[in-house]
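Hi R.,

Here's the chain you asked about this morning:
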Amino acid sequence: MKREIRLNVLRNWRFVLEWATFVSIICMIVTFALTASVLPMPAPPADADGLIAKYGMRTVLFILFALGGGICGLLFLLSRFPRLYKYPVKINADNVEIQYHIAKIALCAGQLITVVVTCVLMMRVYNQNITTDSVDFRDMLIHSGIAGGVVYMVYFLTARWFR
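And the predicted structure, written out as tokens:
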């Protein structure tokens, strides 16, 4: 009885996070489409010497979109082939379904973090208020790394708890 309740809760969380991931990926595509093609390109600042001035805004936006989409794609593929995933506990017939759902939840959370960071970076590049040398860029990367680490630690502890 208790095991079925846990499974139902995990299934519901997984369902919600998979839909949230789907919606966020659509938002990332819309953000890319708006910033790279539909909206007019803002004029570069007079003292521009960063990536945008060197390669062009559309190229930088495409690179950001490709990186974010590639990471999301890898996480998606990893979630579709659970045999390839390295679980923190020994998998047996009793815990295989619970561990599968926990891993899928963690991978969905990783995709959400990736999409949010990619969308924010694309908007900041479009508005030309971020460069790779700026403190905001480093802070954003540090915060996303910490968020990814927290997701992994929560996954690790949850997987151990539900052995």
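Helices lie at 2-38, 51-55, 57-80, 96-126, 135-161.

Let me know if you need anything else.
M.
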